[in-house]
Amino acid sequence: MDNYIVSARKYRPDNFESVVGQDSITQTLKNSIKSNQLAQAYLFCGPRGVGKTTCARIFAKTINCSNLNDEFEACNECESCVSFNSMRSLNIHELDAASNNSVDDIRNLIDQVRIPPQIGSYSVYIIDEVHMLSSAAFNAFLKTLEEPPKHVIFILATTEKHKILPTILSRCQIFDFNRIGVEDIRDRLEFVANKENIEAEHDALHIIAQKADGAMRDALSIFDQIVSFSGKHITYESTIKNLNVLDYDVYFNVTDAFLTGNYPQALLLFDDVLKKGFEANYFISGLASHFRDLLMCKEPGTTDLLEVGNKIKQNYLEHSQKCSVSFLFKAIEIANQADLSYKTSHNKRLLIELALLNICNLEDNAITKNSEVQVEVKKQKKEVKPVEQKQEVQAKEENPSEQITEKPVKEEIIVEEEVPQKVEAKEDKKEIKEEDIEVKEKPSSYKTNSTGISGISIKELAKSSDKNIELDESGEPKVSYKHLGQDEYNDEKLNYVWTKYAESLRANTRLYSFLMAHKPEKKEENLFVVTVESQAIKNKLESDMNETLKFIKTELNNRDFMLKYIIGETEVKKEFKSDQEKLEDMIKENPEVGKLKDQLNLDFE
Ligand SMILES: [Zn+2]
């Protein structure tokens, strides 16, 4: 490695054109040169490694070049340019305020400022990390900044703009540098690799670009590090190994485990990750990002937000097909929640494992599952008790005023014939089943228990906000609206009845406005669909399904009328929600709950 020059230096851009990822800034600087409207003080703000100092140097060189080209770039040939390029120019002065922040340092600088340049027209003073100047130094500097000699241009750079005094800010033209995009960095790395005759896998460079977190300088240092590690051939494997980055495959594998409810596999994969020396929170936050990326793949419009290499992107597109949007929503939430709680958790490993288990259960209606939790759900439904209590509480919290909660539940039943309104509830239920609307799309687990439900009332089931009413009801003993006819009706009539029903619930403002906002649309003969925005709203409306149907059927005098609530365009999956999620649903429905929670500083342990 003789004469080895680090890439960050060797490939430091030497004109505006080659600056990566700051196009609008370089364009503005060029324009000001073109129109000869130079400010006397500039402030370059932005994170480290994004090109602030580089741009300052290019700017200094360009405004001193005696032979600008048509693009208003420095010629790199004139005397001034040559001295700039060999770092000998006397027109540029760099002061690192982090280490030279005393009043004396500034006085020295002020003395120099008076001396006009020998070659070129401007003396450029770059003060890096200017926020580090002591306040005395700041004050000493302020006067010079106010009235600098004509030949002087100050370029102040800082990573912490908020620490700059307003008196300084107001005297500078301010440029905000952004973190450089992953793609931009990767392209630049590709360019460097080419120049160096290094063969590098696309995905490998992508990982480096990601790791650099928006800083070109860091990206190039990492690149050098990888080169010294793996030589002229950079592979994805060697890169993730060297950078101690988790392989995407780990996340893909664990997601497969989630989707099949294979929780032992998920836990083993997690254990593997820990054995490789990764921190658990690194894994869980990576998992959250992974779900986020999968979600981005669900819509053509958002796939561009995916910051991964080509091959991996393909993988993401394929995997995203296996996941439902609602699964991804929940999974992101769970992973993120675990990530947030990580710091304060006493049993960090368990915290993450619990999150993994919760995610495993998300899709527990996905037919082939070995999840025990699923079995438990079934059991609970049959036995009623445990579920009931919990749900009652929940329903209450959720909506104290709702009639449902007021009714004692348990003893109601199976009934065949009409009558007390409990029974009516059943009727609807059974009708739904008859129509078999949703059932076939639904996982079987909920169907199976239906026949054996004897001890459960519909009300009870309806109460639980996270139960899917139609399904739960399926298989209930048959009751019918025999006394009703099969009158014909049109949309107008239905609309009228629907509105009338909504009006009848006016006292319940929330329900009323939901109903007014969500009108039924005809799906097929006698089957109407109401599209709502969220599971929470759907649950709410469904909990009133029985009353709703009774009212409408009666009003229409049509016993065949059927109604179904769906969320957006997507298939609605039933999930077993965590307390946290239930709470979130509640907050969604009623923001006051959230405020209350915050005010009282409530949280789950
Ligand atoms: Zn020149």
Averaged pLDDT, please?
A: 78
List low-confidence stretches. 364-479, 570-575
Taken from the alpha-carbon principal axes, the silhouette is elongated
Sheet bearing the most strands, described?
Answer: 5 strands, parallel
Side-by-side strand order of the widest sheet: 2-3-4-1-5
Structural class: alpha/beta
CATH topology of the largest domain: the name is: Rossmann fold
CATH class of the largest domain: Alpha Beta
Describe the oligomeric state of these chains in a short phrase: single chain
Summarize the structure.
With 605 residues, the protein is α/β, with parallel strands linked by helices.
Outline the structure in words.
With 605 residues, the protein is of the alpha/beta class. The protein has 4 domains: 170 residues, Rossmann fold (3-Layer(aba) Sandwich), CATH 3.40.50.300; 62 residues, Helicase, Ruva Protein, domain 3; 115 residues, Zinc Finger, Delta Prime, domain 3; 93 residues, no CATH class. Helix content is 53%, strand content 8%. It has 30 helices and 10 strands. Strands 2-3-4-1-5 form a 5-stranded parallel sheet, with helices on one face. A 3-stranded mixed sheet has the order 8-9-10. Strands 6-7 form a two-stranded parallel sheet. Helix 2 packs parallel to helix 3, helix 10 crosses helix 11 and helix 21 packs across helix 28. The radius of gyration is 33 Å and the shape is elongated. The site of zinc ion has 9 residues, from helix 4.
